[in-house]
Amino acid sequence: MNGWLTILLLVVANVFMTFAWYGHLKLQDMKVITDNTPLYIVVLLSWGIALAEYFFQVPANRMGFEGNGGAFSLMQLKVIQEVITLVVFTLFTVVFFKGEALHWNHLAAFVCLILAVYFVFMK
């Protein structure tokens, strides 16, 4: 259960982080913010969203790390987090930026990531 809770927290954290990093681009596309919106306002908005990300990411890493009784080594946590990041980013891109398309090379990259997860869990 601890492993699944860690993964769930990492997914939630990555949703927040994806919005922090790329959500302002969609807000600009929707005319909520403009090209003239000062960069410091956009950065502060993103920081606020990223703060929410930390409330999930840090506990996920603390409880998931085997040194704290969790299910994963540090390398395993990092690879899991990177795969989740790319899956969340891909879904975000396809849903919110409809002009972005998935191509064969993106799918090939995902296969490589799945292999990375396999290899990091090998004993």
TrEMBL record:
Keyword Cell membrane assigned: no
The keyword Zinc belongs to this UniProt entry's keyword annotation: no
Origin superkingdom: Bacteria
Alphabetic keyword roster: Membrane, Transmembrane, Transmembrane helix
InterPro entries associated with the record: DUF486 (IPR007437)
Transmembrane segments annotated in the record for this chain: 7-25, 37-56, 77-97, 103-121
One Pfam family in the UniProt entry: DMT_6
Entries under PANTHER family matching the protein: DMT FAMILY PROTEIN (PTHR38482:SF1)
Protein name: DMT family protein
Gene source species: Heminiphilus faecis
